[in-house]
Write a sequence for this structure.
């Protein structure tokens, strides 16, 4: 299991050296911009409360999307809203930015892309909402001297001796959480979709050096771990009307249960298909992101997961209908009664008539495990080995 693996093996850190002059922080009212940067780009908004009234004096922070809490930042990227709730940042370099605005327990957050010079991004009227909280953990040997940060913001927290942490007073929205040890930014990362006035439990932070942990089922969320980058990415379980799936009414879109200390929470269900049914099937899978949108998995070397059970399963990659030309890459697998780590090279999940197997992986919509006969299935720790996260979910 990944959780156990992380605790038992040495950790590799990616050390990033941040250079820059330390600038004393001060707040500006309504607008401003750093000197010596690309001129022309601007960001504007008008901040209101839940009743639509303008919010004066709210604190607004604009940070690069990869900013680590505690780094120095130009004071022109801090300001307070004016009497009518308006704000304006000028002279912004092109790039990915995160805007956070907060005021007495309410906040908002935007992930922004400024891509051209002499452009103005106008967010219009934007409403503050109640702040949220996120809880998670990191491997315990890693916890000492470590803090976790929300990328692109000033939020950070120190894990306790068991590796558990809580980040408070967060804006609702999609957040990327990273573990940092002293000046070393590690690859241990988590993702959260926060709703206002809620506490969200996320899966333990996982490394992204050699693989992406798509799902470990520990957070009981119905979306995969990277859904914060798309807003979607749902797990699903569907079947032909002749097929019976047990348990019949899971609270999660797919039935999960606690398996063991080594495995933690896993998928578990059984499929019963009548012997005389003409075309029985059951399909358990995960959307890669927004429904019907396509995602490029050509950077993935192998699909890896832990599984056990009885019967056979067809591992299937779903291609967008307009691009599939009737091709559905598949890989046949017979399940073992004991937990096994299964590694399938992506080029092995294919169809005989494919002239370029890798090209089929560039426009995928979902990954699923398909059953056409009686089976019992357990699944845990689904990983994309060799994957480039930014090429899949930019």
């Amino acid at each position: 299991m990944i959780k156990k693996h992380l605790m038992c093996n040495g950790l590799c850190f990616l050390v990033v050296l941040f250079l820059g002059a330390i600038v004393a922080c001060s707040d500006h009212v309504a607008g401003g911009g750093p000197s010596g940067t690309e001129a022309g780009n601007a960001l504007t908004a008008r901040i209101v409360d839940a009743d639509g009234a303008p919010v004066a004096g709210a604190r607004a922070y604009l940070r690069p999307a990869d900013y680590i809490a505690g780094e120095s930042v130009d004071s022109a990227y801090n300001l307070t809203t004016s009497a009518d709730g308006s704000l304006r940042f000028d002279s912004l370099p092109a790039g990915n930015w995160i805007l956070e605005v907060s005021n007495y327990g309410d906040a908002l957050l935007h992930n922004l892309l400024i891509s051209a010079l002499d452009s103005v991004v106008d967010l219009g009227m934007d409403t503050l909402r109640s702040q949220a909280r996120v809880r998670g953990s990191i491997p315990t040997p890693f916890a000492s001297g470590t803090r976790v940060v929300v990328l692109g913001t000033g939020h950070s927290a120190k894990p306790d001796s068991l590796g558990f942490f809580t980040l408070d007073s967060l804006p609702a929205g999609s957040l990327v959480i990273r573990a940092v040890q002293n000046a070393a930014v590690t690859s241990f990362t988590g993702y959260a979709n926060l709703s206002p006035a809620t506490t969200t439990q996320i899966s333990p932070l996982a490394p992204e050096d050699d693989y992406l942990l798509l799902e470990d089922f520990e957070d009981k969320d119905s979306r995969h771990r990277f859904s914060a980058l798309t807003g979607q990415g749902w797990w699903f379980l569907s079947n032909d009307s002749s097929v019976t799936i047990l348990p019949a009414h899971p609270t999660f879109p797919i039935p999960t249960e606690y398996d063991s200390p080594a495995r933690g929470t896993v998928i578990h269900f059984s499929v019963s298909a009548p012997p005389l049914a003409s075309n029985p099937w059951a399909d358990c899978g995960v959307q890669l992101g927004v429904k019907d949108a396509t995602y490029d998995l050509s950077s993935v070397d192998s699909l890896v997961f832990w599984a056990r059970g009885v019967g056979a399963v067809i591992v299937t990659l779903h291609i967008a209908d307009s691009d599939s030309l009737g091709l559905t890459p598949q890989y046949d697998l017979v399940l073992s009664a004991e937990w096994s780590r299964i590694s399938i090279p992506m080029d092995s999940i294919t169809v005989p008539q494919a002239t370029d197997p890798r090209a089929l992986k560039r426009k995928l919509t979902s990954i699923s495990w398909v059953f056409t006969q009686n089976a019992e299935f357990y699944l845990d720790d689904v990983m994309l080995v060799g994957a480039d996260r930014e090429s899949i979910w930019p």
In short: The mean pLDDT is 84. The chain has three helices and 30 strands. The domain at 235-392 is CATH 2.60.120.430 (Jelly Rolls).
